Amino acid sequence: MDRLGVPDSEALALDEAVAQICGPGASFSSSQRTAMATMARRIWMDGLASSTADVIAEAVARLTLDAHRVRPEWIASVSDRGVTPIELVELLGVVSSTVAVDTFCFALGVAPWPLTEPPGNGEPHGEVDPAATNNGGWLPTVGRAWPTNALSALPSDERAMHRLHAALYLAMDQMGDMDAHRGLHRTQMELVAARTSLLNECFF
Fold first, then answer.
1. Closest by alpha carbon to 44, among 23, 27, 70, 67?
2. Taxonomically, which superkingdom (predicted)?
3. Do residues 94 and 34 make contact, with C-beta atoms less than 8 angstroms apart?
4. Which of 20, 90, 180, 187 could pair with 160 in a Cys bridge, judged by C-beta atoms 3.0 to 4.6 Å apart?
5. Is 173 among the domain residues?
6. How many CA atoms lie within 13 A of 101 on its CB side?
């Protein structure tokens, strides 16, 4: 694909993010995760989702376009229809990473990064942190629920989220540095982040 306009370090980060998105997860296979990511991309780009009785498709659509409407009652209804809390954490990881990658590409004016399954065994690997439990949040986390550990029940997705976060924003150990500078000064970054969060109704 044409990678023109994407710095090498960020291009590598996008490659790694897509390999994680489209690779096997704890509960879903590579092909299932790739299908979810493809669905999220289509919904995000079109700005709408077709009505469907499929609970996975509904969950992908809700997390892609209407995450601000996620409530414990909706999570319970999804669980009642067969999607476990751990599976919903995995869905969240796939959708949020896909939208982050696509938003970055859109902002740079480049084509969406190809969603390609990596080689190897595509079956679910079953890796779930046994310490994960509902701890102040609506889904299982390791430790007190907080945005930075939203995917901590699933170590591979959690690590991938932190790598992408570091590439597109700041590494977690830089978050306390109010003088960080990456093209923008930290205060400018936070102004953009706060405005974006407000427009997306992202409150935490």
1. 67
2. Bacteria
3. no
4. 20
5. no
6. 31
Q: What is the pLDDT of residues 67-80, one digit of tens each?
A: 888 999 999 999 99
Flag whether 75 is in a domain.
yes
Rounded CA-CA distance 75/189 in Å is 32
Q: Is position 120 within any domain?
A: yes
| 125-179 tens-digit pLDDT | 999 999 999 999 999 999 999 989 999 999 999 999 999 999 988 888 898 899 9
pLDDT tens sequence across 82-137: 999 999 999 999 999 999 999 999 989 999 999 999 998 899 999 999 999 999 99
